């Protein structure tokens, strides 16, 4: 393995000013820090069946993740499992102050952000969340509607019940509209997007814009090139680097995000896999040349796993 066994604290520009022995943290534009590896309760953890009955499988899997060091927990009201996330937090025995909890609002028609947020807090059984996101911009019919919701998000942050606020699945035009919100205190802290080598969102455009504005990027589905979109052109690169560093191709895929200063949200019900990710990811770093090689090969294929209909007009954005 690489002789440098430490990882880094980064800021939203991707720089790495100080060292630590653990999974890195990213400093957000509001001064808070976010663990750069998170456990997601979306996709396979979506609530199925009776909405009022707790799904013990979701709870148990989440408790397992927490006990293996995944203190960054990424949920959403749309996943239907905020109550399960809350139950897992309670059962884990881990002090609330050690956890980084995210949830998201779907911006239901006729409902304020405050109403949705209060409902989420009640289901989670907590007094505050560390990050609250607008789940997507696709409900909005105009820039004014995006701005109204962003003003409501900032009011939630000002109340102290959400330490940071941000967005998800926003393109540049949605961000530009949001930044024009009258009286806004500043840009979103985070934009969470599907991101992997086969969906790089025009790295000289959208990603550069985020860094210019100090908006941190979170990647969901970062393992797509290993799972849903395999086989593909990055496979030989992943395999070669996995052999070099003594890790798996999936760990190379996660490290590729971290080494760009991008938070990675992933999930698994396999405890051994969760444990090895947490143990191995701090032990190696890709070189800038290797990060670039994965990106270059990834541009040879395009694959989107989510929001295909909404992005159909220009699917590479």
Question: Strands, helices and their partners?
Answer:
Layout: E1 7-11, E2 18-20, E3 25-27, E4 33-35, E5 37-40, H1 56-67, E6 72-74, H2 82-92, E7 100-105, H3 113-124, E8 129-134, H4 143-158, E9 162-168, H5 172-179, E10 190-194, H6 202-213, E11 216-220, H7 235-245, H8 249-258, E12 263-266, H9 271-280, H10 288-298
Beta-strand content = 15-25%
SS elements, strand count = 12
Helix vs. strand class: alpha/beta
> Looking at the structure, what is the overall shape?
globular
CATH class: Alpha Beta
Give the strand order of the largest sheet, numbering strands 1, 2, ... along the chain.
5-6-7-8-9-10-11-12
Mean pLDDT: 90
- Span between termini: 35 Å
Quickly count the helices. Answer: 10
Per CATH, the superfamily is NADP-dependent oxidoreductase domain
- Percent helix: 25-40%
Total domain units: 1
What is CATH's topology name? TIM Barrel
For the biggest sheet, the summary is: 8 strands, parallel, barrel
Could you say what the CATH architecture is?
A: Alpha-Beta Barrel
Keywords: NADP, Oxidoreductase
Family: Belongs to the aldo/keto reductase family.
Domain NADP-dependent oxidoreductase: 40-297
Binding site for substrate: 135
């Amino acid at each position: 393995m690489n002789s440098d066994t430490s990882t880094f604290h980064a800021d939203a520009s991707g720089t790495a000013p100080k060292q630590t022995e653990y999974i890195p943290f990213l400093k957000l534009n509001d001064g808070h820090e976010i663990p750069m590896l998170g456990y997601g309760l979306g996709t396979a953890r979506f609530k199925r069946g009776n909405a009022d009955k707790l799904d013990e499988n979701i709870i148990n899997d989440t408790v397992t993740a927490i006990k293996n060091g995944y203190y960054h927990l990424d949920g959403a009201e749309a996943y239907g499992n905020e109550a399960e996330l809350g139950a897992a937090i309670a059962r884990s025995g881990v002090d609330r102050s050690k956890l980084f909890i995210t949830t998201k609002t779907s911006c239901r028609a006729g409902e304020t952000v405050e109403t949705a947020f209060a409902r989420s807090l009640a289901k989670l059984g907590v007094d505050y969340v560390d990050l609250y996101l607008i789940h997507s911009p696709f409900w909005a019919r105009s820039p004014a509607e995006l701005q109204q919701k962003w003003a409501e998000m900032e009011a939630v942050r000002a109340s102290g019940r959400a330490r940071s606020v941000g967005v998800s699945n926003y393109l540049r035009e949605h961000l530009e509209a949001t930044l024009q919100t009258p009286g806004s205190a500043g840009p979103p802290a985070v934009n969470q997007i599907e991101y992997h080598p086969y969906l790089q969102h025009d790295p000289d455009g959208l990603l550069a814009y985020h860094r210019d504005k100090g908006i941190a990027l979170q990647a969901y589905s970062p393992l797509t090139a290993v799972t849903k979109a395999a086989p593909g052109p990055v496979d030989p690169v992943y395999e070669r680097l996995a052999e070099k560093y003594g890790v798996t191709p999936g760990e190379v895929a996660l490290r590729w995000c971290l080494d760009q200063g991008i938070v990675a949200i992933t999930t698994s019900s396999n405890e051994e896999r969760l444990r090895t990710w947490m143990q191995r990811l701090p032990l190696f770093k890709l070189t800038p040349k290797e990060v670039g090689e994965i990106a270059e090969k990834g541009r040879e294929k395009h694959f989107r796993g989510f929001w295909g209909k909404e992005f159909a007009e220009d699917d590479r954005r």
